[in-house]
Design a protein that fits this description.
Blueprint lengths: L9 H14 L5 H19 L9 H12 L1 H11 L17 H13 L48
């Protein structure tokens, strides 16, 4: 199995964790670290995917934290081989595509990482409360989470 912590320098990981903690008062540091690590795995898997992947609501929280640190996010994308675009969507807690979450988790495993199953919750499961209140759609021009939303690069739709 690959070591997810090798994809971010310790200070970069720490700043992303601090962002998750700031956005989620009362969350413990261990949970915030797990969320950031799972978001890094998601980015690595999305970079090599041939079809759009979807983060869970909880993992999306970590992805947003990474994106806010533009230098860190750029370096992460360089390390995984391509820039993984984020297409915002209006919050919709009813947006759920279990197959998309399963496909994403399978792609994370194929990329060589273990999956933290506890962070791949349905959007209505609030056992891990986070600021994010939605789940990304299953792809297409809006809501795609791939290395290339236009589909003309190495990880865009085939």
């Amino acid at each position: 199995m690959r070591d997810v912590t090798a994809l971010l320098d310790p200070p970069q990981r720490a700043e992303a964790i601090r962002t998750v903690l700031r956005n989620n008062p009362g969350m413990d540091e261990d949970t915030a670290g797990r969320i950031v690590d799972e978001a890094v795995k998601f980015v690595a898997a999305a970079a090599g995917a041939s079809s759009p992947l979807t983060p869970s609501r909880v993992v999306d929280e970590g992805w947003h934290a990474l994106i806010l640190h533009t230098r860190t996010y750029r370096q992460l994308c360089e390390r995984v081989g391509t820039f993984v675009h984020h297409v915002p969507q209006a919050p919709d807690p009813e947006r759920l595509n279990p197959e998309a979450l399963t496909r994403t988790q399978q792609r994370i495993v194929q990329a060589g990482f273990p999956v933290d199953d506890a962070l791949w919750l349905a959007p209505t499961d609030t056992s891990i409360p986070v600021a994010a209140s939605c789940q990304h759609g299953p792809g297409g021009p809006e809501g795609s989470c791939t290395g290339d939303p236009d589909g003309d690069g190495p990880s865009g739709p085939n």
